[in-house]
Amino acid sequence: MNEEDVKKKVGLDLIVKTIVYAFAVFGILFILILLSVLGIMGPVNMAVKVPEKTVLTVDFDVPYAEVRGDDFFAEFADVPVYSFFDLIRAINTAADDERVKALAATVNVSSLGLAQMQDVVQAVEFFKSKGKEAYIHSNSMGAFGGGTKEYYLAAHFNEIWLQSAASIGMTGVHIEVPFFKNLLQKIGVEPEFYARREYKTAAESLIRDGFTPAYKEEMSKLGSGLFHQLTEGIAEARGLEVNEVKKIIDKAPIFSHSAVSEYKLAEQEGYQQDMEEELAEKYDAEILDINDYMYNIGDYQSGDLPQVAFLALEGSIESGQSFNNPVREAIIGSATVRSQLEELGELENLRALVVRINSPGGDYAASDEIFHALRKFKQDKKIPIVISMGDYAASGGYFIALAGDYIVAEPATITGSIGVLGGKMVLNKLWKKLNINWEELNYGKNAGILSVNHKFGPEERKLFNASLDMVYNDFILKVSEHRKLDNVEDIAAGRVWLGKDALKIGLVDELGGIEAALKKAKQLGGIIPGADFGLTYYPRQRSFQEKLAEFLESGGGLPAIKVLENSGININEFRLLQRLQYDAALPPFKLEM
Predict the structure, then answer these.
(1) DSSP string, 31-57
(2) 3-state class (DSSP) for residue 41
(3) Is 511 exposed, middle or buried (0-12, 13-18, 19+ CB in 10 A)?
(4) How far apart are CA 352 and CA 375, in angstroms?
C-alpha cells in the first residue's frame, strides 16, 4: 500500500468514525430532549368518552398477550397496549353497560389460541345473554388454510359477514414437529439427553429423526382432542350435526358465496365498512373501538374495598428477572415474581389472588422457587390463590399451578406434562471437523461432568440420571400432596392433557376462563356476590425511565427481528425452538387450526 492509499484509508476511517460519533451524540441528545418534553407535557389524557349509544368494535387479529404491553414503544402508541385479561373484562363489562348496544368484531388470522378463544366465546355468550347482539366480519378466515379456530369463534356470534371472494379456511388441525438429528450429525453435534419418563418428549427433536410411538401417541391425542372440541363447538353454535361439520372441513376452504348460500356457514356477504355502517344506523349509535372502551374502565384499586389481585405470568420459566423480548418467548423470572409478590403483599384489605399462567414450562429450580414463593405468600397473607390457565400451563407451568387452592382451565388448555429431562450437546466431533483441540484439567472426580467436549462417562451418567430421578420424584410427590392424588404415576410420565381430560383425572378443578377464576377467588375470599371490590393487576405499569433503561439494554429487539424475517425465518417458529434448552418444558411443535 503506497502513501496515497494510506492517506485515503486514514481519511475514510476518520469520516466513518465522525459519522458514528455524530449519530451517537444525536441519539443521546434526542433521548434527553424527549425526556424533557415528556416531563413538561406530563401525563396525557387519552380517554375517549363512551357515546350514549355505542356499537363496540373489536379486532381479534390484534395480538392480546397475557401480560400488558409495557415496553418503551408503548409510550408512543395511540392507545395503551392491553392484555387478554383487559379484553375479556371489557366484553363482560359491556354486557351490563346500557350505552353499548351491540358488538361488531373482525377476525381473519388470529394470534389467539383455542383456549383463549373459548374464554372469548364465554364472554360473547354472556354479552348475548343480556339481550344484545354480536356480529363478526371476515375478509378471509385463516388465509385459505387454517381458519378452523377462527370459524369456531365466529360461529358463536349472532351474524357472520364475509367479504365477497373471501374464504373460510376451516381445514382442520395440523401439527408439525421438527427433528434435527440428521442435521446435527452432519455438523458433528451429538445431543445426550435423558428424560423422566417416556412421554417427556421435549428433547426428541434433537435425538430422533422421527416420532417415537409414545411421542406420536401424545401428539395424536392432542390433535384429535382439539379437533373434537372444534367440531363439537361449531356444530352446537351453528345448529349442525358434528358429522356435517367434518364433511365441510374435508371440502374446505369454502368460498364466501358457497358459505352463505350452500353450507349456511355465514349470513351475509359484504365489506366490514358496510357492516359497521348498517349497525350504526340500526342502533342509531356511534362506533367505538374496544381499546378506547378499555381505557375508560381502568383498574379498581380503592383501599376501602376488599381487594382481589390478578397476577399474569406468561412465557418460559427461568431464574432471575422476567423479560419480554420480541425475538424469543417471554420469560417468567423467579426473582421478578418474588418481587411482585412482595409489592402485592403491601395491598390493604387483600382477600384473594388470581394467578394467570400461560407457560410451556422451563427451568425446574426456578419453577420450584416460584411455587414456594406463592405458597409462602398465601400462608403469610392468609388468603386463597386461584389459578387460571391460558393456552398452556404445562410442566414447570403446572408445577407453579400446584400452589393454588383451586385451578381453572379451559377445555383446550394444554397442561400436565409432569416429567423432567436434562442433558447436554456434545461438540467434540464438531471441534474435530474445525481442527480445534481442547485440553482438560479437572480437580475433582466429576468436575467436568457438564463439559460439552465429551459424552458422560459411566459414573457421570449414573450421577446425572440419579439427579433426574430425584427431581422427577419431587415433582410427582408435590402433585400427589397438593392435588390429593394417589395415582400420580399413572397420569404423569410426561403425558400431556387437554383441560377437559385434566378435569376428569383431578389435575384441575373447573373448566372456565378468567371470569370463572375471579368468581371463585371472590367466593373463597369471602366477598359477597354482587358486592363492590377492588381489582389490582400485576405486573404493575412501569415508569418511562424503567422502560427506556430496558430498551437501551436490550437494543430494542427490533433489528434482530428484521434480520430473522429477512432471512426467511418465522419468528413464532424461532421462539418455539428455544424450548429445547429447558429441563421441564413442552416439546417444540407447530399447531395450526
Answers:
(1) HHHHHHHHHHH-------PPPSSEEEE
(2) helix
(3) middle
(4) 13
| Rounded Cα gap, residues 292 and 57, in angstroms | 10
Helices (H), 308-363: 334-344
Q: What is the pLDDT of residues 102-156, one digit of tens each?
A: 999 999 999 899 999 999 999 999 999 999 999 999 999 987 778 999 999 999 9
- Sequence-distant (6+) residues with CB within 8 A of 418 are 395, 398, 475, 476, 479, 488, 491, 492, 493, 494, 495
Q: How many whole angstroms separate alpha carbon 70 and alpha carbon 61?
A: 20
**How many CA atoms lie less than 13 Å away from 333 in the CB half-sphere?**
11
414, three cell numbers: 394444554
Q: How far apart are CA 418 and CA 398, in angstroms?
A: 8
Dist. CA 389–CA 397, nearest whole Å: 9
Helix/strand/coil for 583: coil
Amino acid sitting at position 136: I
Grouping H, G, I as helix, E, B as strand and the rest as coil, residue 470 is helix
Element (DSSP H or E) covering residue 282:
helix 272-282
Give the residue from 395, 517, 586, 416 showing the smallest Cα distance to 66: 517
- Model-level pTM? 0.84
- For residue 407, CA distances in Å to 119, 203, 483, 552 come to 15, 28, 10, 39
Contact 184, 480 (CB under 8 A): no
Cell of 145: 388454510
Residues 333-385 have pLDDT tens digits of 999 999 999 999 998 899 999 999 999 998 999 999 999 999 999 999 999 99
Cell of 348: 390493604
pLDDT band of 205, cuts 50, 70, 90: confident
pLDDT at 418 over 70: yes
